[in-house]
Amino acid sequence: MAHNPVNHPARPVYRAIGGLTGLYLAGFGVLGVIENSGAEFFAQNDTLVLGQGANLGYSIISAVVGILVLVGTAIGRNIDTVINKLLGYGFMVLGLASLAVMRTDANFLDFSMSTAIVSMVIGMVLLMAGMYGKIGTEEEVRAWQEARLLL
After folding, report:
1. 51 dihedral zone (left: phi>0; alpha: psi -120 to 50; beta)
2. Is residue 75 helix, strand or coil?
3. In 3D, which of 105, 145, 116, 128 has the Cα closest to residue 3?
4. In sequence order, what are the residues at sequence separation of 6 or more whose Cβ sits closer than 8 angstroms to the Cβ of residue 101?
5. Is 66 exposed, middle or buried (0-12, 13-18, 19+ CB in 10 A)?
6. pLDDT higher than 80, residue 147
7. Could you give the CA distance from residue 83 to residue 81 in angstroms, rounded to a whole number?
8. I need a surface site. Which of 1, 52, 110, 116 has the fewest CB within 10 A?
């Protein structure tokens, strides 16, 4: 997209923020797996990890997503921006869907209100890191600056 900045001066900061978000997700996932070891995969047992509701299924999903974000951050080369954007949109959808099913039997990831809020915040942070972390050629930079001036 021509409206997203290319070679933003704060790109290393956004990349670090994306990496820290991946580290948080991986840590949350590992702690959730430890806390829920021996429980059912999609148990609705109101187990709290770091103040958030989590069962074994959501903990494994968080750990895998966190590792994926960390790998993307380590690789760089705009792979991190694609991963951060896709997973950011995914976390936003997950947070909204969890709000819809929170007090029903369909809450198979055992989300609480705090988990839904954190999911939305993680989605926004990953989107921000993905939108501002892109690197490109001089032609892409000129196209972005021209698009910005037209607005």
Report:
1. left
2. helix
3. 145
4. 107, 111
5. buried
6. no
7. 6
8. 1
